[in-house]
Structure formats: C-alpha cells, structure tokens
Amino acid sequence: MEQSDGPKRPKLADAADGDEDRLSVLPDDILIHILVKLRCTPMAARTSVLCRRWRGLWKPVPELNFPLGTEPHRIRSALTAHEAPVIHFLVVDLQDAAAESVATWIPIIVPRLLGELVIFNLRRDWDGETGTVELPCFQGADWISLDLDNLGLALPPSGVFARLTDLCLVAVRMRGPCRLGDVVSSPRCPSLRKLILRDAQVRDDIVIHSESLLQIGMDNVLLDNNALGPGILDISSESVLQIDLKNLIGVRKLLVMAPALISLKEKDTTYIADPVDPSQPLANISAPRLTFLEWNARYDRRSIQLGKMAHLQWLHAGQFLVYGSDEDFAHNRIRLLQRFEFIICLDLALYYRKDISDHQRYLMEDMPGLPHVLFLSVKVAANGHSFGASLFHALRVCTGVRKLTLAFDVSSRQLEAQTTCSLGCICHQPPNWKTDELLLSHLIIIEISAW
Description:
Number of helices: 9
Structural class: alpha/beta
Radius of gyration: 30 Å
Protein name: F-box domain-containing protein
C-alpha cells in the first residue's frame, strides 16, 4: 500500500498560460485594498505587468501616495488616468519642485478630493523663493498639510473650505492679496479646529475670528506688514482652548479675546512698539478661564496687559534675572508674579549673567509671597556665581510647597577648569540667607537634577 504524504496541494495556475493565479481571482475590493497597503502609487501602477487581471486595477484606488522624487509630469499623468470618483488620501513628496510644476497637477484633484491632502517639498539647493503655489479652494478636504520649503503660497480669494478641520502650513511665504486670517476665520473655514503655522513669513496682519477653532500653534513666524512694518496678531474665538506662540518676530501688537481659553504659551516673541503711537500696549489678553500660562517673553505691566485670570493654577514664569539694571528691573518677570495671589504650580528659572558689575541691583527683593504654591520647579543657571541667596529667597516666599524640583545648568561646566567669580563679587550679597531660618513644614518630595 502506498503511503500518503497528506492531502496534495493544488497547483498554482500558470499566469503565462493565460490562466489566473489565485491572488488575481480575489474580488476587486480586496485587490484594491492590497494596492492601498503598498502606499506607493507608482508601484501600484507597475502591478499591471503581472497579468491582464491587474491592468488598470490601480486606477480606482481611493488613496494615492507619490514618493520623494516622483517627477511632476508623472504625477499629472497618473492623476489624469486615475478613475476613482473620490480621493480620500493624497500624499505628494516633491524634490526641488518649482511652483509652476505644482500648478500642472493640483487643479486635477480639486473636485475629487474628499479627505486629506499632504504636500512636502524638499529643496536641496535653496537659493531663494522660486515662484508661488496658488492653492485652490478644496471644498471637500478635511485635512491639509503643506510643507513647501520656502515657496510662496497664495490662498484662494473666494470659496469655502466647508469640511476643513485641520490646516498645517510649514515653510511658506504668504503671497497674494488674500490674507491668511480671512481664510481661516469662520466665514470661509466654518469647521476648522486646528491651525498650525511654522517657519513662515506673513506680509499682512493675522486677524482670526473663529467660532470653531480649538487649537492654534505658531512657531518661528515673521510678521512683516510691508510699508507698515511689524504686523498685528489678533485672535478672537469663543471656542479656542489652546494657543501656543513661539518665536514670533516683528509683532506690533498681540490681541487675544478667548473666553474659553485654558492654556496659553507665549515664548520669545519679539515685540516692536507702534511707530505712530509708542504708548500703545504691545499685548492685550482676555482669557478669564485660563488655567495654564507660560510666559517666556518680556513682561512690562505697562505694555503687557493681562486680564483677570481667577482660575489660573499653573504658571510657567520663565527666566528671572537675579542681578541687573533699573531697566532690567522694569521688565523682570517678578512683576508677573505680583499679579497672581493663588498659584498651585509654579515654574521659574533663576538666571545670572556671566559678568555682574557692582552697580547692578538685586532684583529678587520684590518677589511676592506665594504661600499657596504646592508644586515648585526652579531651574538655576548661575554661570559660576553663588546662587544661594536667590534660591533661598524663592523658597522662603513659597512656604506651602509640597513638592520641590531643582534643576541646575551644567552645560557650562563641561570643561574641568570652570572659572568662578571672586569672593568680592556682588552675587555673595545679601549674606543673611546663611543664618536665617527656612521652614518648609509641608515639603514631602524633593527632586534634584541637571539640565
């Protein structure tokens, strides 16, 4: 009796003989799903060489992805041949693309895009702006992300982005008559929830009036209002919950009217006084429900006007200059602390300039008592100076602290021969902290680290 080796496997059909292989007999929707998983439209199109069954199968794929280096004319050819009535997802990675090349294919997708659009441009030899990309109004897009590597961008002067919820603009130079604020405000973006602007240049004021925005983030943005010089950033929203501003350059005035705002982060903004009326405030913020405030820009209570913030619980107060001039005293962030009577979490940094002259004054004396601080985080950048007095002072005014986090800057101590100040340096004053009593009866946790 012959021994059986188990059930025999049916032989795969030979596609060369005109028969279909097992993969090709699958339903179209499964095969299309397989092509989507390739995440590369040119590769999906090349599957047409497998057999007649695969020819043109990529054309109804609803998600398109063109990898880095795909030539613009091939993108246009593929989009022209594409037959899906709706495009749910389109990613285009360009290399050294000029604005004119984008204009050859982007109008093709406007009526069919019902989903996400991502365009990334990598320029290896950047020698200035090379043209302006004119963005059409995508009425069906719900997510648009453009990283143009310093190409110009002109927004559409008319039309409504009815479904758009997320807009991210990176490395763009805003051009054209249509203002960014006009486009992202409610009349033209009624569903917009998240706006990100990074590494950008804007030639006009940014005035946003939105009833849908929840999050706004701006990082390294230059406001240049042509002949008027510095620009205005005006945010008015009943819905926005979080605003993050970092490295804004050339701001003549910051206006925020946000009754629902919970978190505001403002770091390293360069304010420039109004040349017509220098007495005008540089910032005017109304956020009565704010609970988290990070303010790392300069603070002068005459020019930076913060409204009532009765619900504030967490204050990131930024860098405190320990010794400085009278002008430093006027802008020192200790003035910021004096605005608040009740703070649960306080983050601050004590900073010593490397060279401290004898005529400079000790700026910590006006630091107010903050007995309600429960969590205190202090970073110290001493630059070789004695920091005992300033740290002692900060602890003495926060008598209710339960958790204390201390971080010391060691970046300047990488060399073994670290220079320190002389015993006669003013940083050793006032000396009474060495003998005064410090009582922290509620303290439970201490964490000490380097940064």
